[in-house]
Amino acid sequence: MRNPEKNPNFVIPESEMRFLASRSGGAGGQNVNKRESKVTALWNFRDSNEINDAQKTLLTEKLKNRINAEGELYVHCQEERGQQANRQRAIQIMNEIVNQALSVSPERKETKVPKSEKEKRIKEKKAVSEKKSLRRKIDY
Question: What radius of gyration do the chain's Cα atoms show?
Fold first, then answer.
């Protein structure tokens, strides 16, 4: 079992994916009216042996808008004119989405604002205040 957290270039096995073809719109002339070139790639990651339970939970949280009622992650692709090209592109997009979702950004360490920066900010504020006070009317 591979660990996608350690390998940033995790590749979903094609044997775990399912593909559906349908007619697509866009460029292609009469070809789009006759051929099913749009590809929908589906991956049931909850049944996958390639990722652990923590990663499955992470995918569920981060990709909830891309998961259908059956719990499958899906991607549509109709950029290319041919079904095979769209299939390869859908696999590529699916892998990119999963790798991005599995990457965990490091937690931010809080830092203290240096004393010199605080003093500089106050000095600038006083300078602006002084400039504006000189613009006011003088009461006699």
Answer: 27
